[in-house]
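Supplementary Methods S3. Complex input for the NAP-bound model.
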Amino acid sequence: MPRDEIYSDLELPVQNAPDDRPYVFINMVATIDGKTISSARGEPVEDLGSDFDKVVMRRIEDAADAVLIGAGSQRSSPKITYPPHLIRIVATRSGRLLWGSRFFNDDPSKVVVLCPSTTQLLNAPPGVRVLRAGTDSIDWPLALRKIREELGVRRLLVEGGSDVNGQLLGLDLVNELFLTIAPKVKLGSSTPTYAGAEALPRGEMQNYRLIEEHCVGEEVFLRYRRIR
Ligand SMILES: NC(=O)c1ccc[n+]([C@@H]2O[C@H](COP(=O)([O-])OP(=O)(O)OC[C@H]3O[C@@H](n4cnc5c(N)ncnc54)[C@H](OP(=O)(O)O)[C@@H]3O)[C@@H](O)[C@H]2O)c1
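Predicted complex, serialized as structure tokens:
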């Protein structure tokens, strides 16, 4: 496939999502050894993927109605920007977010803070939209229901980090996985990978079908769909 066409006009079978949540897909870039950071956890990762990986990332974002990231990723990437149409959702328990970043200020009408009911949002800009689900921790099935029903999101792109990805995968709430393999090795037994959380027992390992694969330069672009 010509590189111009990879993930252009991405088709997502949203009808396969249950009525009470959006179609959920994750996109990440990882090293050959599966790590998803290039420096320390909590620092930006712009240098992990190539310029073309960033183009591909934009095409995947173009197919979404909303993007969800964890607060760890939000705090690590003050310069992160999104296509104008995207609703931007950030998950937090601490309420400690980079309020001065582009995430909050490029288009405040598109921003949603997702948190449990006990979270206090200190120093939040006036009028920031807040979605609460759960008491001490985000109740993910309830959060996804609210994202679908209250925000009208049918296609939800999750862009990490490892913590948020792991929780959603652990609850089997994800329909597709996009992965770019960058030709690098990072190492580290505690270095974040595509997804953290608790290991699944052998009998509960999840199966995915490879539905697209593209090799461009030194990178491989993979797309998997959950088989249930
Ligand atoms: N390679 C890639 O494609 C890629 C993509 C994204 C990010 N990254 C990198 O990954 C790192 C961040 O990943 P991470 O795993 O450390 O963090 P993360 O998943 O981005 O965010 C974790 C944070 O999300 C909030 N959170 C998660 N689950 C929650 C729950 N159930 N209830 C309430 N809040 C919840 C908490 O925020 P509070 O701490 O505010 O309570 C938690 O500390 C950064 O270095 C970033 O640059 C890499």
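The pocket of NAP is lined by residues 28-29, 36-37, 41-45, 48, 69-73, 76-77, 91-94, 96, 116, 137-138, 159-164, 167, 192 (CB under 6 Å). The beta strands are 23-31, 66-70, 87-91, 111-115, 129-132, 155-158, 176-182, 208-216, 219-226.
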